[in-house]
Amino acid sequence: MSPSTRSETADPQPPGERGTMSPTLSGHLRRPPGPAGYPVVGCGPDLVRDLVGTFTRAWREYGDIVSFRLPGKRNLFLIVHPDHIKHVLDDRQPNYPKDPLSVGKFEPWVGQGLFTSNGDFHFRQRRLAQPAFKGSRISGFGPAMVEATSDLVRDWHGRATREETFDITPEMFRLALTIVMQTLFSTDVSNRAGELARAVRICNAYTNVRLQRFVELPQALPSKARSRFLRARATLDSFVYGLIAERRRDPAPPDDLLTRFLNAQDEQTGERMSDKQLRDEVVTMFLGGYETTALSLVWAFSLLSRHPEAERKVRSEVAEVCGDREPAASDLPRLRYLRAFYQEVLRLYPSVWTLSRSPLEDDEIGGYHIPAGSQVFISPYLMHRHPGFWENPEGFRPERFEKSATGGAPLYAYIPFSRGPRLCPGSSVAVLEAPLVIARMLQDYRLTLAGGHVCEPTSNVFLYPRAGMPMRLQHFKSTGEGAA
């Protein structure tokens, strides 16, 4: 049985299928075009098999608004245009909360934290967290970021001497987790970072399977994957609840994000956050506060290997600005090419490659009917490759960001950290951390992709390399090129 290729461009929404038409909408609005998929199951199997590839092919064939048929008369739409993205994330943001179907699949893992919450609760928690990501506090994170990277540099010395080839993905996870726990929670997890990072990856992998399953199975059903997930979650819960208990006992706690959450009071009731609420916020930082940066570092080192001239420019700039000393946050204004390089990494491989929302009321986007309760997906990964808004969109050109924070594209065409009221609060940490890590690593090492390795992205909650990122590690000076 093969899927139909008929484009569904003019199917009116059946009356009563998903709420009723808003009085402001025309009753003659069409359904966006898109693949019909298979009988009964629609596009579900294709989305499960290869979400990145299916979205990419559909966008290229049908345009900037695509509809996908799913079982049970569910509506899924993909939008890839800056005006339409602005409409969802900003202009009509209150009508587009987080998609409850996706949120429900994240909740067994992250609970009700900043990542999954909606409405007043979300923005209250966001106000509490925001001061931890501002101004001088952020630049004060620099020394801890560089110190953690230097520790990894020392750990890798023997591997570099042997010129080992290994997957750098878990190593970047371990490093980024150490950094986020030290900077946001004043906690040294260097001895447990590998264990905790593995637990996070197990939880994310389990959640990703659920996200791509278009027929949900009862959670009570036993399975090896679920048992593995529960053990990993228990490992993280034990650590996080222990951290909370220790902080509650501290007579002089540090002024960090955890302490701010501990001291926060509800404006109306005066109540403080429960241990469960605190746990959810800390785990949210596991999900979004370190894994996204770790993945961007993985893609960054792969791009340096694939583009030797860019690597040469970054090395030369770091050597000129920093000399023989370690890089510092105060160096970043002069590390202009490195910062532009990292922005190009985020353009080509945004860790959060899709965002999902669900309209509370019927809406119109680009002249098409978007029914209430639909799943609406925005893809930074595809938006950043739109030939209508990017010159040479598939090409690697860090120079495009040297004179423009958006690479010369419209504001909502460059969205590695989302936009609008739900702009990622930790974006300022990422754009400090990653360039410092890259600069410090390049002072000692060269990483070269294993021969024949294909850097293909796949969805695993975030944008992972499908087959990992095996790279050969060498001492930089041993390559005979010196430090300049």
TrEMBL record:
Q: Does the keyword Iron apply?
A: yes
Q: InterPro entries from the entry? A: Cyt_P450, Cyt_P450_CS, Cyt_P450_E_grp-I, Cyt_P450_sf, Cytochrome_P450_Monoox
Q: Name one GO molecular function term.
A: heme binding
Q: Write the Enzyme Commission number(s) for this entry.
A: 1.14.14.1
Heme found in the keyword field: yes
Residues that bind heme:
424
Q: Which cofactor does it need?
A: heme
Q: Which UniProt keywords apply?
A: Heme, Iron, Metal-binding, Monooxygenase, Oxidoreductase
The EC class name is oxidoreductase
| Any Pfam family | p450
Q: Which SUPFAM superfamilies match?
A: Cytochrome P450
Disordered: region residues: 1-40
The similarity comment for this entry is: Belongs to the cytochrome P450 family.
What protein name is recorded for this chain? Putative cytochrome P450
